[in-house]
Amino acid sequence: MLGNKVSRQKPCHHCKSGSASAPPDTSTIHYEKFWLYRHCSSVQQRDRQAQKAGQLFSGLLAMNVVFLGSAFISSMIFNHVAITLADVWILLSILKVLCLCWIIYYLLGTSQQPHAVLYRDSHAGPIWIRGSVLLFGSFSILLNVFQIGYSTILIQCKSRVDIVFPSIEILFICSQAFFLWRHSKDCIQVQHNLTRCGLMLTIATNLLLWLLAVTNDTIHMEIESQLREVEQRFAGKAPFSYPYLCNKTALCTCPNTTICKVFQKGYILLYPFNTEYCLVCCSVLYVMWKNVGRRISHHHVPHIKPKFKLQGVVFGPLLGATAVITGICVFMMYQIQATSSAPNRQVFVMYYSYYIVLLPLMSVGAVIGTIIHALEKRELDTLKNPTRSLDVILLMGAALGQIGMSYFSIVAIVATDPRDLLNSLILSYSVLLIFQNITQNVFIIDGLHRQPFISPGTEEEMKEEQNHEAYDQRRVSMVELGQEIRKVSLSYLHSYSHLSWKRRALREISFFLVLCNIILWVMPTFGAHPVFENGLEKSFYGYSTWFAIVNFGLPLGVFYRMHSVGGLLEVYVTA
User: Fold this and answer.
1) pLDDT of 471-482, one tens digit each?
2) How far apart are CA 247 and CA 302, in angstroms?
3) Enclosing domain of residue 129
4) How far is CA 443 from the centre of its chain?
5) Are residues 374 and 344 in the same domain?
6) How far is residue 371 CA from its own chain's centroid?
């Protein structure tokens, strides 16, 4: 297991063969105890076995909770008469209340005990991950506020659960976001088994909330798409008819008021952020679970932690900003056309053409960056790091969403008419997307396993920063301010010109890929879903099958882009 080795073992107070003389600081280390291993002869062996047993039991707890919740959600989808959405909400509310009780106990009890947090993992919970938790958590709170307002307006056809469940959700999001912001780096040394079970219960609850959000989003998109196709069929524009149409939409219709429309549109707009919030929280909580009982040696802690500085990059931000601005224009034009009753074929051509231009540039940049990594003399970081291991797993796992959808699209296009203009664009887009995901993963994973580059002038840079901070504390005149701006500009150009070509290229590539992944995250997050709206794969695989594929791959693809931004920032900082 990670981080379970101890350089100096303390005597066992529960074994008869323990040493008589104990060091004076034995109270600072709390060894794990488990009832299955009371008769162990070695303190280190008992500690390791107790940690494995604790992880096993907490993992089994999470597995059973996830299976139970998945059975409820699946029953709601396939038999909504016996199991309703209110029943699922009641189960999730019970789980959230249990998680709230444990989080409060951890904040006020476990973490306040003497010697509870002797070590903190410097790699866990970087600022952009914790910032993502706060950002997505804020949007999720606003989402639940809109849901409460929408249900209050339609109280005559809504149950009270529609108001109680979002209220509990707001309390859960607030407490969890505060808990992760303050304690995401903790390597807790007391109450190991209780902490592991609490973390695993919280992970399972977030996974079930994500699963419910995906299925609810699926139902909403299905109703909206089918209503649009019914309108086209009555207008004589739809070649296919779909027998199933959810009549529940007629039961609760939003009145013709501005406030109701605001709540409804705001709820639809903010819905994707809730799914991202659940996935990010799961990743942070998993790292905390791996760090329970972990003891970090002092030589594993980096003396100089690299910081994010916008130095040594010129072309990367320019090309990335061009890609972002162009993507926003394409996205706005696509949204205007795709939300109409009859989406224009040209808007799909424009959308896929943008991707066909951007994806090869990203792939070439990732390949060049990987080659530069191979030419570098930086040593590999071989220390065990739970955060880095999780980053690799999430990158590889989340990429399967887009790769899987791309292969399904390739099969559908090749089997129908690959010579059509739109079909050929979709085919090229699918192939390039697979190649881009693979090359970017290789580049990020290789960069994450490299030792941070420490330049010889680090001390001079630190002194220069201290001088700047001291200078900022004084009141300066306009002339001095202008001289300071000139000095900063000259310093930026000086640092850029003195960077080695390898470091400069890595920073340019990393920054360019960061901005590209941001715009590729924004477009599907805010409603651009051409993989379903173009109609090709839907007519080939059938409505229900393709919808299941899209709603499995699309949230993973969105999460992949967001997680890639964090990994690329790590590569940029360490370059």
Assistant:
1) 444 444 555 556
2) 61
3) 45-233+252-296
4) 19
5) yes
6) 28
